[in-house]
Input
Amino acid sequence: MRLQTFLLTEGRTKKISKEDAAELLLTKHKDSVSGSLIYRGISGFQSSYGYINPLQGKPRRSQGTAPNFYTLIMSHSPQWSSWPSREFSLICSTVYSGAEHYGDVYNVFPENGATLAIAPDADIWLSFRRKRYGHLKILNDAIQILLRDLGGSGDADLDIQYFKKACKNFDVRFKNNKDSLIKAITKYRTWFEYGAIGYITDNYEGDLFKLLNNMISPKNDNFTKVKVGSSLPHDREVWTDAKCLVIYHSDYPLQ
Output
């Protein structure tokens, strides 16, 4: 009963006992034992066993000062509606080395029936590769420039409503004046983001939010999703919004 109460009431990450971990591996999380292992680096947890409910955490943001636009699109766009939420997710790697840079390495066991989203590379920043503009990180920074410097919206990545409003402000200014937009971006010609800004400008037809959603779509790269217990590709970033049991790597298998 104590474990059941814990699963229903506790926050995103809590310590549990070895006995509770063993029970979960035999019941609510047994499907993940038969699939490929996934790993997460966790700093300062100070327990060998934990339970994480991503949906009870705060919305995740990009690391450091990186803008958060791609996370908002991947969490709220209809094109991603059948995928695990990126905004409320536990991000992992299919290789040990992909997790050890972020802290002590834990094996992660999502609950039975969980969906795992698989990025096309070891880091999601390297997805959506295009000759014209590079990859997702460059595109993400380009959106910041368009909305902040050209659209006049400073905190457009705070949440999805701010983002949509910033795109509408951009449309009001440039929807019927594409020549003005082309002129405005010329000062960014020497910036590494220029290719992405140029690509967006070339394809802009009066609805910036729709264009960005179409660019950051799972259809535009080799994103895949599988059920827990499946065999996973080597060296990929994966994420899930399902509840997860975590066990310190050196303490697994349980003795």
Residues 116 and 240 are 5 Å apart (CA to CA). Helices lie at 2-9, 18-26, 69-76, 136-150, 160-174, 178-185, 194-203, 208-215.
